[in-house]
Amino acid sequence: MDDAIQGDAIRRDAIRGTANGTAPVPLSVLDLVTVGVGRTATNALRTSVDIARLAESRGFNRHWVAEHHSMPGVASSSPAVILAHLAAHTERIRLGSGGVMLPNHAPLVIAEQFGTLEALAPGRVDLGLGRAPGTDGPTAAALRRTERLNEGADDFPQQLAELTRFLDDDFPDGHPYSRIHAVPGPVQGPSARPPIWLLGSSGFSARLAGVLGLPFAFAHHFSAHNTIPALDLYRESFRPSAVLDAPYALIGVSALASDDEKEARRQVLTGALSMVRLRTGRPGLIPTPDEAAAYEFSPMEGEFVDSWLTNVVHGTPDEVRTGLDDLQKRTGADELMITANAHGGDARLRSYELIADAYDLPGSE
Prior knowledge:
Elements: H1 3-15, E1 27-31, H2 41-57, E2 62-65, H3 79-88, E3 94-101, H4 107-120, E4 125-130, H5 137-144, H6 149-154, H7 156-168, E5 196-200, H8 203-212, E6 216-218, H9 227-237, E7 249-257, H10 261-279, H11 289-294, H12 299-310, E8 312-315, H13 317-331, E9 335-339, H14 345-358
Parallel strand pairs: 1-2, 1-9, 2-3, 3-4, 4-5, 5-6, 6-7, 7-8, 7-9
């Protein structure tokens, strides 16, 4: 088989997951590496390893981490570093970025980082890309060394094309970069490369992913009102490509299961309070359940929390399974990527275990 054709087939297989147990579609993990009050980044990163190992043993499809900056409650500012660590502690589960915020970086740097990850964990690395800064304006300016923040987002298609050229090592003759090689990469010999995903919370990346025939991941967990319009736009815009002959859409969903329904509510309220503080310019560590329960929300904050929790699937394992099933049917998502936001690692680990049990995923006792 021709190397190019074989490579395309490998990338297609890497994109489409396999549903295990009674799950309607593949289930995956989005890990925000959250840091709670009284905890440290070290604790959070150790929990990430525990979650990745659990996800691998229970038949989850992939484990992604997302780029965030200047947020005390999140320790995932360097996805490539975290993914290298997770690769050293797992064997089979796909690992990836959900995502790397491309305008924050030179495309060559991302090609080198993910070429290195592919060399460390061959055949199980995903490169998910977003166009938002993953932070506030001043922090984005510090990252990009410019105050012209819109320029990065506007140039996203060009940056994406450049990154793809570096990953494939195929700049045409005469191009200024034709003699530059991202290493590790194809210049060192035949090799696979991470499949590219586009991430989004609105229509821009949905349309671009469709036009380019790329898989698309939508951030339902914080932009639920845009989910169905964005997925419709992706599917309507889709053109078959070398990596996909039909659309493949993943959605991120906030979900937390507990043995007790009231405890699930206590846990997810910590994430809601964190979002209130973030949206009002007061980001901090993830509060404890007791702190969140005692917090006196203003009427406006209370409305936000009620709206926010409407899109957080939480409760007993059966309730969470029903909520996830309903969401998948409503959106037609090809894969569900679950993020469990809570103060402590134990609650997050327990949630993934209970969800795995609810769907009879492999490894249950």
